[in-house]
Design brief:
The complex is a heterodimer of chains A (234) and B (826).
Chain A (H helix, E strand, L loop, with lengths): L7 E13 L2 E14 L3 E5 L6 H8 L7 E8 L2 E3 L8 E4 L11 H11 L5 H11 L15 H13 L5 E5 L7 H18 L2 E5 L3 H5 L3 E6 L2 E6 L11
Parallel strand pairs in A: 3-8, 3-9, 6-7, 7-8
Antiparallel strand pairs in A: 1-2, 1-4, 4-5, 9-10
Chain B lengths: L1 H15 L3 H38 L4 E6 L4 H10 L3 E13 L2 E10 L9 E4 L7 E3 L7 E5 H7 L6 E4 L2 E11 L12 E6 H7 L7 E6 L3 H14 L4 E4 L7 H14 L1 H31 L4 H38 L13 H25 L5 H5 L7 H19 L3 H32 L6 H11 L1 H40 L2 E7 H13 L3 E16 L2 E2 H4 L5 H6 L3 E6 L6 E6 L11 E5 H7 L6 E6 L2 E13 L10 E4 L11 E7 L8 H7 L4 E4 H40 L1 H13 L4 H39 L7 H22 L8 H6 L1
Helix pairs in contact in B: 1-9, 2-7, 2-8, 2-9, 2-10, 2-21, 7-12, 8-9, 8-10, 8-12, 8-15, 8-21, 9-10, 10-12, 13-14, 13-15, 13-23, 14-23, 15-21, 15-23, 15-24, 23-24
The chains are: A alpha/beta (234), B alpha+beta (826).
């Protein structure tokens, strides 16, 4: 899939708050950002600062308390519901279906869409993430790093325009985390998908082109000085 | 420490009672306890009723009954033992009035009747009841009200029996010696002894009952005397068991055995929910240990919670079972006059205690695992699943216990368990085969259906249990309602074709000669004719019948009366040899007998066993040399016991005939002439047989329908339990599917597909099961082709599909409320 920088998710003066024990808790406000297909974004910050909530807003799964989230495709404004079919998720806990082997877990999104050649494509993606020898293994027979690689293949197999990842290396040791991060960034690049990830890892965040950092109740957009203005993946 | 555990258990019990993993098992236990207690109470009411009957309706302290009169010497001897006695004689005959006829039990009584109790009569329908101490005078006949209606005769009018005229003078309401009639619903008429003498009925068709007043010693003397001198006679006394007591014990045991289906389904549901409960209890136990508590703390709290759960169920069990018991008695009272609701606390406590012990076996795997709880599980997140083999063993213990409690006959237990086992195996095989085939054949395809099939195959165990629950329920309903209905219809058609529409069940030689003349005169066809004599089995291998078998069986119940003995030199066309060898023509060794296969099994007889029959006043010993079975295609008149024709030279007894005839509709009115001339001739029309069959069928259908309601309830709980047990997995699956950019609608469609497939397999399993059962029964028992009604089959299939899919979708509603956010927060 080719990168189309005109496909983007626009957040315009977005704010999110929730009510707890009759008190309104503000997570963030007045956040404006444009997520471009093909670029990478990291959301960082302490626990409970609102990272996951922001991810949910960006993916269109939740509506903001204030402001607006829009999906633009070639400058056409589309309803957020259209975004649903264009995004994939990667979770900290991998969330593979235990009943299915690696091949079928990856082929699942294609099969559910009724696409032909699902298993061939799944095989390609598993080879791509270095699991060509583990096609028939069930999740419980794979290590954490391997499971996350299967999850990456599964998220990319149906060629979404954006990938949302929630702590993709949070459950992995340093070596596995690096391997998974390498694969995640390179696969997104190869596939032309935008990558938005929530992470506590500074090392992982540093590999993203844009960093959204929650600090002292504020969310700021930081850009890598050395990479400013470039579309680049590590 | 213990009181702390108690208060903790109390607190947790209240916290957990609303959760599905507690609610469903409680519901299952409630249903099963209510069932068992209701069964026990109802059975107790019937047994109490029978005992009361024995005391109030025997009409004497001891009754000796047999075919024909006692000899003068025997009568004198008995009268020497007891000071007061009365004789009643009865026979089956047909009364005719104008063109109406009705088969009745005609009883003749003397001036000393009734011996004990009162004879209740009235002078008009619904009129004042008169309590009397004497029977009808000579020339009078008293009838029950139904008989008056059927014959369209009024009080004061006269009717003929043979050549004698009787005036209908009273309506019988109650005879104090009615007990001996048991379930007999024959219409009844009462005449004086002297008239019976005049009617000159053959002596061998008259059943005599000698009623005596006697104390305990006299009763014992009479019993001893009867065993030695009148082995073929039946004896009933107030200190003994009711003649129907064993029959009802058998009925209770049969229903109890059938409840294995309920326990089986309970085991399925509880086993699934145990996994959830296990995780929570083991987690709690491990946390307790991490605080420094002992290992037994968690176990103690779990046991106390379980006891509290049972204790809180008991009031509800008592209330519901009392209500159901009352309803059951109301229903049964249409068949048992004066059956009363009778509640006994012991008959509630005992079954509840047994049920609680049985349920504790379901819980054993959890308690066993709690013993092994450790802090390691919290650190390493170890699998805390209940061992499958342990659960399976505990379920087997439960089923074996239920079988042992209700088993009184190995054959019946094996048959009931076998039938249930076959249904379960069949449904399991169909589930496995259908899901495997579905999964394999759609493997290469994409779309929702292949995925649904694939997931179902992967979750084969839990899916199969759902299918099993639904399938068993549907099988039972279908088998009862449809198969028995078809069976009745086909049997009627078959019997009509082979046996005609009129069956003569007993005609003497003279009567048969007259029937031949009548048949020839009216161009009526006789389809079958077979001779027989009556004989009462008294001993098996020199052991008295009452000592030989003490467990109830249908064969034993029949052998308490005289049975028909048929003779021939060649194997009848509608019989085949199962074991042994048939005798040669003109066999010199005439003391050979062939016994029907089912009777052999029922009584545990073997070739070479010796049977002693009391035939008229002669004791005859036979050796079993063959065993035969019914072979369809040549008429349905067959006999349990057959002997060589050569035996006739050595046995002096009246000969009778059974025969079947085909009459035109118009010719039925000619029967009145035959019956008027031969009132003792026993004939029954196909319509009457059909009606009797329909009545039995209606009763069986009502019982099974009630039972099916219980099974349906449990099937629903099995579905709900399995849905609940899988809810977390389902939610996760739906969330993952949504994370691929698919909508909730896709998950809903998957849900529909899954339940539609579940319903289809369960319904197909039930229908195929019913079909196979039908084929087997028809083929083996009647050699007929089973032709099911396809309209009914398809309608049933659609109904099952609709209900199962609807329940499944509603039950699974929760799993659709999943979201991707839940996956993130996990």
């Amino acid at each position: 899939m080719s990168i189309n920088p005109n496909n983007r998710i626009e957040l315009d003066k977005v704010g999110q708050s929730f009510t707890s024990n009759e008190h309104e808790v503000l997570l963030f406000q007045d956040l404006s950002i444009s997520l471009v297909q093909g670029e990478s974004y990291a959301i960082t910050g302490p626990s409970g600062s609102g990272k996951s909530s922001l991810l949910m807003l960006m993916s269109g799964l939740e509506l903001p308390s204030k402001g607006q989230v829009t999906y633009l495709q070639n400058t056409h404004k589309l309803p957020l519901s259209d975004l649903r079919g264009e995004i994939g998720f990667i979770f900290q806990q991998f969330h593979l279906l235990p009943e299915l082997d690696a091949l079928n877990n990856v082929a699942l999104p294609l099969k559910l869409r009724g696409q032909k050649g699902a298993e061939e494509k799944a095989k390609y993606w598993l080879t791509r993430v270095g699991l060509a020898q583990r096609l028939k293994h069930k999740p419980q027979q794979l290590s954490g790093g391997e499971q996350q690689r299967v999850a990456i293949a599964r998220a990319l197999v149906f060629e979404p325009k954006f990938i949302f990842a929630d702590e993709p290396t949070g459950n992995l040791d340093t070596k596995s985390a690096k391997e998974v991060a390498d694969i995640l960034f390179s696969c997104c690049l190869e596939n032309g998908a935008g990558l938005v990830m929530v992470t506590h890892s500074e090392t992982l965040a540093a590999r993203a082109q844009h960093i959204l950092a929650f600090k002292n109740g504020q969310c700021e957009l930081l850009e890598h000085e050395h990479d400013k203005g470039k579309v680049h993946y590590a | 420490m213990r009181s702390n555990n108690l208060s903790l258990a109390w607190q947790f019990y209240h916290q957990e009672k609303g959760h599905a993993y507690r609610r469903f098992p409680a519901l299952i236990q409630l249903i099963l306890m209510v069932f068992i207690v209701t069964l026990s109470q109802t059975s107790n009411s019937i047994q109490t009723y029978l005992n009361t009957n024995l005391n109030n309706l025997l009409g004497a302290d001891i009754v000796i009954s047999q075919k024909g009169r006692l000899t003068d010497a025997q009568e004198t001897h008995l009268n020497r033992i007891s000071e007061r006695s009365a004789l009643t004689q009865s026979l089956k005959t047909t009364l005719t009035y104008n063109d109406n006829w009705q088969r009745v039990t005609l009883k003749a009584v003397g001036n000393n009747y009734p011996l004990q109790g009162e004879l209740l009569t009235s002078y008009s329908l619904g009129g004042k009841t008169i309590a009397g101490s004497s029977g009808p005078l000579s020339g009078e006949i008293w009838m029950d009200s139904r008989l008056l209606t059927v014959l369209s005769i009024q009080l004061g009018e006269q009717l003929n029996i043979g050549d004698q005229r009787f005036t209908v003078s009273r309506i019988i309401l109650h005879e104090p010696d009615r007990l001996m009639e048991g379930h007999n619903v024959d219409m009844r008429a009462l005449i004086h002894h002297d008239d019976l003498e005049q009617l000159n009925f053959p002596k061998d068709i008259i059943h005599s009952r000698y009623l005596f007043s006697a104390n305990k010693k006299q009763i014992n003397d009479m019993i001893e005397w009867q065993k030695a001198h009148l082995p073929a006679a039946q004896i009933h006394h107030k200190q003994g068991a009711h003649p129907l007591a064993l029959f009802w014990q058998r009925t209770e045991n049969f229903i109890g055995l059938a409840s294995i289906i309920l326990f089986f389904m309970a085991a399925i549901a509880i086993q699934q929910l145990n996994q959830l409960q296990m995780q929570k209890e083991q987690f709690f136990s491990a946390v307790c240990i991490s605080f420094g508590a002992s290992k037994s703390t968690g176990l103690q709290i779990s046991i106390i919670k379980w006891l509290l759960n049972i204790a809180f169920l008991l009031p509800l069990v008592l209330l519901l079972s009392t209500l159901l018991h009352w309803l059951a008695i109301q229903w049964l009272s249409t068949r048992f006059d004066a059956l009363e609701w009778h509640w006994n606390i012991l008959h509630s406590i005992k079954p509840m205690l047994i049920a609680a012990i049985i349920f504790s076996a379901f819980h054993l795997p959890i308690w066993f695992r709690l013993k092994q709880a450790s802090v390691r599980q919290l650190i390493n997140n170890l699998d805390s699943k209940v061992s499958k083999s342990l659960s399976f063993t505990c379920a087997l213990i439960v089923l074996a216990t239920v079988s042992a409690i209700y088993s009184d006959n190995a054959l019946l237990t094996a048959m009931v368990l076998g039938a249930i086992g076959i249904s379960i195996t069949l449904i399991l095989l169909i589930s496995w085969f259908a899901l495997s085939l579905g999964e394999k054949s759609t493997k290469k395809f994409s779309g929702l259906i292949p995925f649904a099939l694939y997931m179902m195959k992967q979750r084969l165990l839990s899916k199969t249990t759902q299918i099993l629950g639904v399938g068993l329920c549907a099988f039972l309903l279908l088998f009862t309602l449809m198969l028995l209905k078809d069976l009745g219809g086909t049997m009627n058609a078959y019997q009509r074709q082979h046996d005609g529409n009129l069956l003569i069940t007993q005609a003497s030689e003279t009567q048969m000669i007259d029937i031949d003349t009548w048949v020839a005169k009216n161009a009526i066809e006789i389809r079958q004719r077979k001779p027989f004599m009556y004989g009462k089995l008294t001993h098996i291998n020199d052991m008295h019948l009452s000592d030989y078998a003490d467990t109830p069986s249908d064969s034993l119940a029949t052998f308490m009366r005289s049975i028909r003995l048929h003779w021939n030199d060649s194997i009848p066309e509608n019989n085949r040899i199962v074991d042994g060898e048939w005798w040669q023509t003109n066999a010199t060794h005439w003391q050979q007998i062939s016994i029907e296969q089912e009777v052999m099994t029922d009584l545990g007889l073997q070739l070479g066993d010796r049977l002693t029959f009391y035939i008229t006043e002669q004791s005859v010993e036979f050796e079993i040399t063959a065993s035969h079975a019914y072979k369809p295609g040549a008429g349905s008149i067959t006999f349990w016991a057959q002997m060589p024709a050569a035996a006739l030279d050595f046995i002096a007894a009246p000969h009778y005939h059974m025969a079947s005839l085909e009459l035109e509709d118009a010719q039925f009115s000619l029967l009145a002439q035959v019956w008027q001339k031969h009132p003792s001739l026993r004939m029954v029309s196909m319509d009457e047989i059909t009606q009797r069959f329909d009545k039995t069928l209606a009763m069986v259908t009502q019982i099974i329908s009630g039972f099916s309601i219980l099974i349906s309830l449990l099937a629903s709980i099995v579905i709900l339990s399995s849905v609940h047990a899988l809810e977390a997995k389902e939610k996760k699956k739906n969330s993952i599917i949504m994370s691929f950019g698919l909508s909730k609608k896709t998950c809903f469609h998957l849900n529909i597909i899954e339940w539609f497939v579940t319903g289809s397999i369960a319904a197909s399993g039930a229908i195929i099961g019913t079909w196979i059962a039908g084929l087997l029964i028809y083929e083996s028992q009647f050699s007929m082709l089973y032709r099911p009604n396809f309209f009914w089959l398809l309608t049933t299939l659609s109904i099952i599909l609709f209900i199962v899919t609807a329940i499944g979708i509603v039950a699974n509603k929760n799993s659709l409320s999943s979201s991707i956010r839940e996956l993130m927060t996990e």
